[in-house]
Amino acid sequence: MARAYNFSPGPAALPEAVLRQAQADMLEWGDAGASIVEMSHRGPEFLQVARQAEADLRTLLAIPDDYAVLFPAGGATTQQALIALNFAGAGQRVDYVVSGHWGKTALKQLVSVDVNIAASGDSDGFRTIPARETWRLSKEAAYVHITANETIHGVEFRPGWGRVPPDTGDVPLFADFSSSIASEPVDVSKYGLIYAGAQKNLGPVGISVVIVRRDLLERAGQPRADIFDYRSQLANESMLNTPPTWNWYLLGQTVRWMIEQGGTAEFDRRSALKSKLLYEAIDGSGGFYRNEVDPSVRSRMNVPFFLAEAALDAAFLEGAREAGLIGLKGHRVLGGMRASIYNAMPVEGVQALVDYMQEFRRHHG
Ligand SMILES: *Cc1c(COP(=O)(O)O)cnc(C)c1O
To answer: Which residues take part in binding pyridoxal 5'-phosphate (predicted)?
Structure first.
């Protein structure tokens, strides 16, 4: 069976080379006599896998030494809850900029902190990101939280919006990079904390990455169980309890693949090319397809689009499937379609989608 071009938003497509290697490694790790997924996380084989994954991630993202890297079990939503516990004292002010569904989700994870919504794109359906001048930031906030790329609404902090990342003065900037990490070079030193669930751009679901300026770990947080304490996790190499070893291994393989492909500079180039192809096909369709996001903040990773006639949605998806293009159904919050074009999606996959869209329009336009 041929593998389709998979536009799924997450869990998302993995590079075929990574899946093939994983297939080989599944049965036996080297000559260890067992699979990597069957061995102790404290044994030399897995420790080597875990440490190599961190070293490679540091290389890929050019993470400075004064930043710690954690590999916590669970998703981005889990980290949304944990960052408040770890960095804000009880009742302390935290600032949130809400630019879409995941920014709203982040708010729902907050308890016993004083939340200030510094800005929100809600009033225009998250088609823009409020200009930096309009943000009402608090001087005493523990941190300012943004979502670098909104996976559902398809809005991303891009240079056309203004200075990226936004300046937040002395208050550290925390960013949810779940769906855009490693898609372009990022100056990590501009952030206090970056987190990402792995299942969009970094590998499989079940594990996250947290990159945090070390000195921030010593700031007051709230009383919390050891297992939720980033300091304890760091002291124990993210192995306070049994980590999701297979996921960690797959993440490491995916990171290694990205380095071999040319790193974030190369994915920047590919993301620019892929997103341009797709947006031009949508904008040039005479209204048959439409994307409603302000072009200055259009996401290069997730492209939501609508057919002028929603009655054609089912036929569009059915035809796409027959053409070997899957995962295009839009999120239930927005409806319509969405093409997620993460690092593992080759340019040819986007070209195949664009060709199909033009063909479909010729038949139904
Ligand atoms: C997918 C996603 C999340 C939620 O991730 P989970 O791993 O399901 O908790 C949060 N933020 C963004 C930007 C996402 O794309």
So the answer is: 76-77, 102, 151, 176, 199, 241-242
Sign of the dihedral defined by the CA atoms of residues 73, 77, 78, 80, in that order: positive
Residue 23 in any domain: the answer is: yes
| Residue in 176, 229, 246, 274 annotated catalytic | 176
187 occurs within a structural domain: yes
User: Computed from CA positions of residues 5, 332, 78, 140, in that sequence, does the dihedral angle turn out positive or negative?
Assistant: positive
Q: Which residues face 116 on adjacent strands? A: 95
Q: Which of these is catalytic: 25, 29, 95, 102?
A: 102
- Does 59 carry a binding-site annotation? no
pLDDT tens profile 291-347: 999 999 999 999 999 999 999 999 999 999 999 999 999 999 899 999 999 999 999
Question: In what side-by-side order are the strands of the sheet with 67-70?
Answer: 67-70, 208-213, 193-197, 173-176, 144-147, 93-98, 114-120
pLDDT, tens digit (0-9, with 9 covering 90-100), for 166-192: 999 999 999 999 999 999 999 999 999
Nearest of 259, 258, 247, 256 to residue 46 by alpha carbon: 247
Q: Is 207 exposed, middle or buried (0-12, 13-18, 19+ CB in 10 A)?
A: buried
Domain that residue 254 falls in: 17-260
Domain match, 224 and 280 both: no
Distance separating alpha carbons of residues 350 and 196, to the nearest angstrom: 24
60 and 88 belong to one structural domain: yes
- pTM for the model: 0.98
Count of the separate structural domains present in the chain: 2
11 Cα to the center of ligand 1, angstroms: 10
Last residue of a domain, one of 203, 227, 260: 260
Q: Give the whole-angstrom CA distance, residue 109 versus residue 7.
A: 28
User: CB pairs under 8 A, 24+ apart, for 29-37?
Assistant: 36/245, 36/246, 36/249, 37/245, 37/246, 37/249
CA of 45 to the centre of ligand 1 (A): 30
The distance from CA 292 to its chain's CA centroid, rounded to whole angstroms, is 21
| 143, 174 contact by CB (below 8 A) | yes
Please tell me the distance from the alpha carbon of residue 202 to that of residue 199, in angstroms, as a whole number: 6
CATH number of the domain that 202 lies in? 3.40.640.10
Give the CA distances from residue 170 to residues 138, 143, 162, in Å, rounded to whole numbers and listed in that order. 11, 9, 19
CATH number, residue 345: 3.90.1150.10
